[in-house]
Amino acid sequence: MLLNKSIDIPYQQLPFSGQFNVAPLGVFRNELTEQPHRHDHFQIIWITKGKGRHMVDFVWYEVEDDMIFLLRPGQVHQLDCEREGYFLYFTEQFYFTNKNDKETLYDFTSLFDNWHGYGPISTSGNTTESLLGLIQLMSKEKSCAPNCSRGIVKHYLNAFLLLVEREKKRNAAETMMPLTHDARVVQLRRLLEQHYRTEHQVAFYASAFALTPKRLNEITKDTTGRTVTELLHDRIVLESKRSLAFSHKSVKEICYELGFEDPAYFSRFFKNNTGISPQDFRDMMFK
């Protein structure tokens, strides 16, 4: 059970000035962090020592030492654990100050993709030391206000993200699930995020790449193990769950907001993808 009553789940706004911050986990702890909530920015939670669990989009993960959770804007999460470590948050606008940055800086957005399934990242010895050093460098530079250099912070952050990406690939290799990358799939994710409420046909997304639906499905299947339709349905189901669990909206209202014209069809769609009806899912959340 996540909550004892249905509420419109809030977005947790940036608690500090600016579009970036790094601090010990203990600094950022209030009633909201102990309840399901979401952010309008990217967040990295690095638990150096911890025991308990962490919920991300309705799935609970056991917390261990030296574990990193990557959160995209809008992801619902809840911390239910003893924890020491650090958190970083930043906006895409902070990282990519202007269009030229896209050509010179690492595109971190692919690191936060979950097409291969969400999961925390475990860090190894040498990398853990390097990540800690970068945390200290970012903290030191940020404390130099008003002379703090955005460029210096971004390059430290860039190095931090690259190390985390390497650890993500190492984790995948150890579980015999190597990650593959295709820039078109990254772009597809962005298109799905923008249009999943209104565009439910593969042809719409394929046209953005001047590809046939069959060819785009082949690309996504090779890279993610999922077809475009499956990725789209996953995203719709996730948003359905968020609205059912954390809002007062009726099933009919949720249906229309997600681009379905027939509530009965939406209910069948939800049950086919989850094994449970929308109303039963909502009731299960608040038993």
Automatic annotation (TrEMBL):
Keywords tagged on the record: DNA-binding, Transcription, Transcription regulation
Domain HTH araC/xylS-type: 186-284
PROSITE patterns: HTH_ARAC_FAMILY_2
Keyword presence, Disulfide bond: no
Transcription regulation is among the record's keywords: yes
Domain of life: Bacteria
One matching Pfam family: HTH_18
GO molecular function: DNA-binding transcription factor activity; sequence-specific DNA binding
Family annotation (PANTHER family): ARAC-FAMILY TRANSCRIPTIONAL REGULATOR, TRANSCRIPTIONAL REGULATORY PROTEIN
Protein's recorded name: AraC-type DNA-binding protein
Provenance organism: Chitinophaga arvensicola
